[in-house]
Amino acid sequence: MRLKTTLSVVAPVVLALGLAACGGGDDGKGGGTAAKPTNCTNKIVNQDAPRVLVWAWYPNMAKVVDNFNNQHTDVQVCWTNAGQGQPEYQKFQTTISAKKGAPDVIMLEADQLVGFEIQDALVDLAPYEAAAVRKNFSAGAWKDVSQGDKVYAAPVDGGPMALIYRTDVFARYGIKTPPKTWAEYADAAARVKAAGGPVFGDFGSNVPALTTALMIQKGAVPFVYDLADKQNITIKLDDQATKDVLNYWADLSKRGLVGKQDQFTTDYIAGMVGGKYATYVSAAWAPGYLTGAGVGNGKDKGKFAVAPLPQWDTAAPVSVNWGGSAFAVTSQANDKANAAKVALGLYADAASLTDGWQTQTIFPLNQSVLTSDDFVNAKVDFFNGQTVNKDIYIPAENAYKGAVYSPFTVYYYAQLQAQIAKINEGKATGDQAATDLQNTMVQYAKSQGFTVK
């Protein structure tokens, strides 16, 4: 699940190479310093069963937890919402520093995992039968939660990307088919503006994860990092692919072909409702978010459709991902074996997964859903009955190869956000932004004890 929040206030995780593990022994039983599983938000069905404390923020988490507890006599989930995204991460970081008070299981976005892995704050799930669920996920989804043969979380949902567009705007300005390439996207944007139409899309500074995904689509590899070699990292943010993407969007921004509005704001949503944007470059979770935010419920109902993400080279298409969350076991877990049962089994049953996708809360990564007739052939109301899973999102997810994230994603996003803001203000070119970003991140990595290759 992607967070519907901005990164305007960011507290980077303080890294220190070589931190000791936070929890107890490796036998999976006892010795942990996690918070006690009391004051549960949910009902405990089997009072005699051991409890596992879970921090998670999925919108339908109450139902998911009830489903798990009703199906298990051996372990029960004690759930609390410790905040969505950054507030939760900051609280978790505090418990890591204190070496006590963490939950047994925590919901984390995939791009945040490495920053906690490097602090030995998460447990390798491989010894706890993670291989048994491996078959349920695509290679890309599994790569996002793994480091070599170690598995640090159980995937739940993802964000294969696509192009959402306004059918009424396209029809009004003679855009007969959605752009298949980014060159076609720019041409269509210019045509709509020349005819007096709205901006074609948006280059908001507060969605650096989106921009990073588009950089990766072009062929960029921003970071190369292996947890087995903690000391060393490769940073490539001034490569030609990154410059090409930043220059592309800088050009659209300078020409007024796309907006510069921060996304997930009241003004942005009002623009979506009012047809201020012809397209929305986003992910499979977007329909649920937009519907919940009031898009597609009034005069704009039935005006949205979705097409594959434009490509740089249609002969060599690249699928990318924005967002996605997973359940990890913390090193402080009081009973790591039971915690692993929860991490691997929570939001993995048919009832929870079905509720998740039918209410558009998540785009599930579990292949039992992705191959089911109900999901494959679902006609999504937001897209006026379009079979978007079959035609767009499932092919994109199955083609996704995974990504390599850095140990300091929060800090990197903050710096990229600042560079995008400079581009939109006309204070930097894409080339300049890429070079400055490279220099900043190399300096930061070195200050944190890394050797930058």
UniProtKB/TrEMBL annotation:
Gene3D superfamilies: Periplasmic binding protein-like II (3.40.190.10). Pfam families: SBP_bac_8. Residues 1-23 form the signal peptide. Keywords: Signal. PANTHER family: ARABINOSE-BINDING PROTEIN-RELATED, BLR3389 PROTEIN. This is Sugar ABC transporter substrate-binding protein.
